[in-house]
């Protein structure tokens, strides 16, 4: 159920994220900011099944709204324009972004009360861990 993802989540750990940003083509200056940012992830679902996912940091706030299994246009925090589809598979929110002949996948799941985001680009994998704010 998507409802388990609803809430405000604070980034507490980030592994290999710089390598992931490099792999998707993020420039050095943007990576510096990306590595310093400790975003909160705010997830809501309305009665019509529209999901809002907002990443809030001191540098940038980015929000996407989507319905599961429906492709939409996304302008990412690092300014890529992607075709994005988010599905719910085996308890995970799976976000697939495609742009310029490339694609990346972000798998979000709840483990031990924490939200993990696994960012995959080819053979590069980053893991970001969020804890729910009270």
Automatic annotation (TrEMBL):
The record's section on Pfam families has: Lipocalin (PF00061)
Signal sequence range = none
Domain Cytosolic fatty-acid binding proteins: residue ranges: 7-24
Query: Is Transcription found in the keyword set?
Result: no
Which InterPro entries does the record match to this protein? Calycin, Fatty_acid-bd, ILBP, Lipocln_cytosolic_FA-bd_dom
Q: Which domain of life is it from?
A: Eukaryota
Key words, A-Z: Retinol-binding, Transport, Vitamin A
Q: Does the keyword Translocase apply?
A: no
GO MF annotation terms: retinal binding; retinol binding
Functional summary from the UniProt entry: Cytosolic CRABPs may regulate the access of retinoic acid to the nuclear retinoic acid receptors.
The similarity comment for this entry is: Belongs to the calycin superfamily. Fatty-acid binding protein (FABP) family.
Protein name, as recorded:
Cellular retinoic acid-binding protein 1
Species in which this protein is naturally found: Hippocampus comes (Tiger tail seahorse)
């Amino acid at each position: 159920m998507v409802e388990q993802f609803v809430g405000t989540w604070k980034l507490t750990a980030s592994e290999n994220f710089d390598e992931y940003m490099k792999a998707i083509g993020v420039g050095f200056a943007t990576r510096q900011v990306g590595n310093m940012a400790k975003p909160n992830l705010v997830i809501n679902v309305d009665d019509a099944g529209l999901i809002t996912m907002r990443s809030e940091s001191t540098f940038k706030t980015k929000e996407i709204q989507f319905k599961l299994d429906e492709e939409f246009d996304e302008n990412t925090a690092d300014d890529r324009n992607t075709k994005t589809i988010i599905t719910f598979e085996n308890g995970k929110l799976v976000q697939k972004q495609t742009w310029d002949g490339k694609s990346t996948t972000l798998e979000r799941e709840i483990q031990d009360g924490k939200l993990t985001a696994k960012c995959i680009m080819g053979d590069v994998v980053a893991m970001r861990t969020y804890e729910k704010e009270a």
